[in-house]
UniProtKB/TrEMBL annotation:
InterPro entries: SecY, SecY/SEC61-alpha, SecY_CS, SecY_dom_sf. Pfam families: SecY. Component of the Sec protein translocase complex. Heterotrimer consisting of SecY, SecE and SecG subunits. The heterotrimers can form oligomers, although 1 heterotrimer is thought to be able to translocate proteins. Interacts with the ribosome. Interacts with SecDF, and other proteins may be involved. Interacts with SecA. This is Protein translocase subunit SecY. The central subunit of the protein translocation channel SecYEG. Consists of two halves formed by TMs 1-5 and 6-10. These two domains form a lateral gate at the front which open onto the bilayer between TMs 2 and 7, and are clamped together by SecE at the back. The channel is closed by both a pore ring composed of hydrophobic SecY resides and a short helix (helix 2A) on the extracellular side of the membrane which forms a plug. The plug probably moves laterally to allow the channel to open. The ring and the pore may move independently. Keywords: Cell membrane, Membrane, Protein transport, Translocation, Transmembrane, Transmembrane helix, Transport. Belongs to the SecY/SEC61-alpha family. It comes from Lutimonas vermicola. It is found in: Cell membrane; Membrane. It is a multi-pass membrane protein. The chain crosses the membrane at residues 21-39, 80-100, 120-142, 154-174, 181-198, 218-241, 274-293, 313-335, 377-394, 400-418. SUPFAM superfamilies: Preprotein translocase SecY subunit (SSF103491).
Length: 444
């Protein structure tokens, strides 16, 4: 504990790091305050029906990602999700569109152009999503009396403008956090929205266990222990790597080429190279079968209803299969084994026992395929774990935190942020957050 307190004090001593953390926290507070502002013309006291209809299911999941803003008819009701959707579309288009492929190879200037394309695509998505959200509000439980100014053209125009502005503002906050603060801003905004629902979900579960004599404090304690075990497993999934040994016959040291026989390094291939993206892709597709629930055909409607229950059997079977498929797909498009093999060859490195060039690329691709299988299976298990937990009597709102996108985003963002803080500490010759020991001494 003393080591931790000492590390926190070291963080506070570094003015640059302190400023970055304070700026990040301030912008996240601004985002959360904006999420509490309802759309003009809607009575916030008559949103009980909307809150009840978005407490579970697919809408409940969307509401969790926006930190409850979706159920409050807030100016931030759509949150940062349209930007995430635009980012996914741009990434997928990068496979087939030569212009985007060219931008990806142009370094920083190309990245800026891709970001600009993503922003404009976000606005295009908002032009569709914002009216859809507003039109669906009455069917989601908001009575006519809640629309104080009616639902005329003025209401729709102003609300669409505000919803679009809210998402653009959230996007700007995220980019500012990334540029001037600490951590990935967009991911932090999603995480803070998820965490915002954590206390209410836990209290609901605790109240249910105690008031209904459903296990009491013992069951609450057991659930907390299981939750920490799942978090530990998620950390292992995020950080686990398969090291491919690389040997260099020649290495460049201080500008001079020296023969360093036997010098070895490793290529780390992550067990889960695709991160949380397969779950996000799969979840986006899972909204499609749910649309069939509004069909007039009884057979199609029954199928649609089965896929609207995020804790149902058929939903989770299809969800798990899609996650495994997308894990391989996303890994294939983001891990260029051919480029890795070429870079290795140019640098004078080789995998022992494997010829440089194509054979090395094939070898890396084979290893990557093998490690992706257990990684994708584990990821699928974590994604459907909330559905398994609910069978034990856990409240749906609390079960969401036992796996799926919510938990993996929180774990991934926390690790990424800690690594950035750790890097700042080590650069200033302090102990990192992830290691123990005394302050590092520098020899002059």
């Amino acid at each position: 504990m003393k080591k931790f307190i000492s590390t926190v004090q070291d963080i506070w001593k570094i003015e640059e790091l302190r400023s970055k953390i304070l700026l990040t926290l301030s912008l996240m507070v601004v985002y959360r305050l904006a999420a509490q502002v309802p759309l003009p013309g809607i009575d916030p006291t008559q949103l009980t029906g909307l809150a009840n209809n978005t407490s579970d299911g697919l809408l409940g999941l969307l509401n969790a990602f926006t930190g409850g803003a979706f159920a409050k008819a807030s100016v931030m009701a759509l949150g940062i999700m349209p930007y995430i959707s635009a980012s996914i579309v741009v990434q997928l288009m990068g496979i087939a569109v030569p212009y985007l492929q060219k931008l990806q190879k142009e370094g920083e200037s190309g990245r800026k152009k891709i970001n600009q394309i993503t922003r404009w695509l976000t606005i295009a998505i908002l032009i569709i999503q914002a009216p859809t959200y507003l039109i669906s509000l009455p069917s989601l439980g908001i009575p006519e009396s809640a629309f104080l100014l009616g639902t005329g053209p003025l209401f729709y125009f102003s609300s669409i403008l505000l919803l679009t502005t809210g998402t653009v503002f959230a996007m700007w906050l995220g980019e500012k956090i990334t540029d001037k603060g600490i951590g990935n801003g967009i991911s932090l905004l999603i995480m803070i929205g998820i965490i915002a629902r954590f206390p209410a979900s836990f209290m609901q579960e605790a109240t249910s266990r105690i008031n209904q004599s459903n296990g009491g404090l013992i069951m609450i304690l057991i659930e907390i222990v299981i939750w920490f075990v799942v978090i530990f497993a998620s950390v292992l999934l995020v950080t686990a790597v398969r090291k491919i040994q690389v040997q260099y016959a020649r290495r460049t040291v201080a500008g001079n080429i020296q023969d360093v026989a036997g010098a070895r390094q490793y290529i780390p291939l992550k067990l889960n190279s695709s991160g949380v993206m397969p779950i996000i892709f799969a979840q986006a597709l899972m909204f499609v079968p749910g649309l069939m629930a509004s069909s007039e055909n009884s057979v199609i409607k029954s199928i649609g209803v089965a896929f609207t229950d995020i804790f149902g059997l058929w939903y989770n079977i299809l969800f798990a299969v899609l996650i495994i498929i997308f894990s391989y797909f996303y890994t294939a498009i983001t891990i260029p084994t051919n480029k890795m093999a070429d870079d290795l060859k140019r640098g004078g490195g080789f995998v022992p026992g494997i010829r440089p060039g194509k054979e090395t690329a094939d070898y890396l691709d084979t290893i990557l395929s093998r490690v992706t299988l257990p990684g994708s299976l584990f990821l699928a298990l974590l994604a459907i774990l909330p559905a398994i937990i609910t069978k034990a009597g856990v409240q749906p709102g609390w079960a969401i935190f036992y796996g799926g996108t919510s938990l993996l985003i929180m774990v991934g963002v926390a690790i990424d942020t800690l690594q950035q803080i750790n890097a700042h500490l080590l650069n200033r010759h302090y102990d990192g957050l992830m290691k123990s020991g005394s302050k590092r001494k520098v020899a002059y």
